[in-house]
Amino acid sequence: MERQTAMHKTREIAFLAALAFGLAPSLVLAQTAFSPRSTNKQAAVEYLFPEQIAVPAGKSTAVALHFRVAPGLHINSHTPKEEELIPTVFAIPADSGVRLEAATYPPGADFTLPLDPAAKLSVYTGEFIIDARIVAAKGDHLVEASLRFQACDQNACMPPKTITVAIDVVGR
User: Fold this and answer.
1) How many structural domains is the chain composed of?
2) Same-domain check for residues 63 and 87
3) For 7-51, what is each residue's pLDDT tens digit?
4) 88 and 59 share a domain?
5) For residue 150, what pLDDT is reported?
6) Do 118 and 160 belong to one domain?
7) Same structural domain, 123 and 56
8) Whether 128 and 105 share a structural domain
């Protein structure tokens, strides 16, 4: 008990010393920098719509899937110019009752990095649309499709990520 009281007093003295020397803002910043509440980041890519679609069962149907890349970021297009870059890919699981017949991706925009202005990347920024052709079995299918991509800013790339693209598909 005495040891805990001594440790508590030591912390109080350190805090008061920090206040006296004008370090309190630094302490507060250091404490909040590791707070779980401060890790709320915007998603690099967001699925916008459609959330629900009705299609003729057993027939190929076009569906436009809308996505948005966060401001200040870009993702590699479906056909990046460098082999080692990770392409953006949309997929539907085989056991979902819905089959992805084809996906048409938008062309990527040319993008140059400040470090290498001669190199051109093929990327998506802002909003983009993937035109998918799907075939659904009769019934209601909650499809957990996916979009795999790698987001980057002007200086670095994040690890590749896969987000869930939830679509309620009704095959009539």
Assistant:
1) 2
2) yes
3) 344 444 443 344 344 433 333 333 323 333 334 467 999 999 999
4) yes
5) 96
6) yes
7) yes
8) yes
User: 65 and 28: one domain?
Assistant: no
> Which of residues 9 and 131 earns the better pLDDT score?
131
Q: What is the mean pLDDT of the chain?
A: 82
Establish how many alpha carbons lie within 13 A of residue 69's alpha carbon, considering only the half-sphere containing its beta carbon.
Answer: 22
> Does residue 101 sit in the same domain as residue 162?
yes
Q: Whole-angstrom Cα distance, residue 10 to residue 152? A: 45
77 and 123 Cβ atoms separated by less than 8 Å: yes
What distance in Å separates the CA atoms of residue 89 and residue 67, rounded to the nearest whole number? 12
Same domain, 61 and 141: yes
Distance CA(164)–CA(43), nearest Å, equals 12
Give the residues across from 68 on adjacent strands. Answer: 46, 127
pLDDT digits (tens, 9 = 90+) for 49-69: 999 999 999 999 999 999 999
Strand 52-55 versus strand 61-69 pairing type: unpaired
Q: What is the pLDDT of residues 63-115, one digit of tens each?
A: 999 999 999 999 999 999 999 999 999 999 999 999 999 999 999 999 998 88
Please give the residue range of the domain that contains residue 63. 42-171
* The dihedral formed by the CA atoms of 114, 116, 117 and 123, expressed in degrees to the nearest 10: -80
Q: How far apart are the first and last CA of the chain?
A: 72
Residue 152 and residue 36 in contact, taking contact as beta carbons nearer than 8 Å? no
The domain spanning residue 46 has which CATH number?
Answer: 2.60.40.1250
